[in-house]
Write a structure and sequence with these properties.
The protein is α+β, with helices and mostly antiparallel strands. It has 4 helices and 15 strands. The protein is globular, with a radius of gyration of 16 Å.
């Protein structure tokens, strides 16, 4: 899958960490408690280790090549709002239960608007552009909230038990990608302005309380 956009691969390539007065906040990754489809069934992301096989959207089961774990906010003071995760109410994006998404964590969403614009019904949008859509809002993180980033040999999208699809970056560095990915990256996160415009269109499309799971997900997780 290719979502044509000039921005996003570099931003999502690693663990996006921003310092704030000596403390550090994490804006990309999966919050602990997120349950991911693996070869051993649904498992909390914090229980996944390097070498485990995880079910991916386009490439079936793939081995995790690296796992990064860090606190969402390392400061003693209250976590600044820009690091707060977004809470997605049940059914807002077709998710079966409430989920939390970090601001820079990309989600793969299906929409008619994406297909009309890019020739592909699936597009990667950073979580922050979903704020305000169908009750999606920032919420303060739990105390000592942990964040996990799963890396693979190539960029992947992984399945969450609620029905969400999350981007998981390659462990390769940007120079290696530039030398070997001659056809361009498989996944690219839409730039902010395009992502916000598409998110607005997706909100219009969501005329019912829930939307069906993506077609590929229904088949992939039928045995879980």
């Amino acid at each position: 899958m290719v979502v044509c956009a000039p921005w996003g691969a570099e931003r999502m390539a690693g663990h996006d960490e921003t310092c704030d007065g000596g403390a550090a906040g994490i804006m990309t990754g999966l919050v602990e408690g997120t349950r991911i489809a693996t070869a051993m069934g649904w498992r909390p992301v914090e229980a996944i280790a390097m070498g485990d096989k995880v079910l991916t959207f386009d490439a079936g089961l793939q081995r995790v090549t690296e796992v990064l774990r860090d606190p969402l906010w390392s400061g003693e003071s209250a976590c600044p709002r820009r690091f707060w995760p977004l809470e997605v109410p049940r059914g807002a994006l077709g998710n079966r239960t409430v989920i939390r998404v970090l601001p820079d964590q990309a989600m793969l969403l299906e929409s008619d608007a994406a297909e009309a614009l890019y020739g592909d019904p699936f597009a990667l949008l950073p979580g922050e552009v979903l704020e305000g859509i169908r009750g999606i809002a920032r919420v303060p993180p739990e105390r000592n909230q942990q964040v996990v980033v799963l890396h693979f040999a190539e960029d992947q999208v992984v399945f969450d038990e609620t029905g969400a699809l999350f981007f998981a970056p390659s462990s390769r560095d940007l120079m290696d990608r530039a030398m070997h990915d001659r056809d361009g990256p498989l996944y690219t996160v839409l730039p902010p302005d395009e992502a916000r415009a598409l998110a607005a269109q997706i909100e219009i499309e969501l005329s019912s309380d829930t939307i069906p799971l993506p077609r590929d997900m229904r088949a992939a997780v039928s045995s879980f």
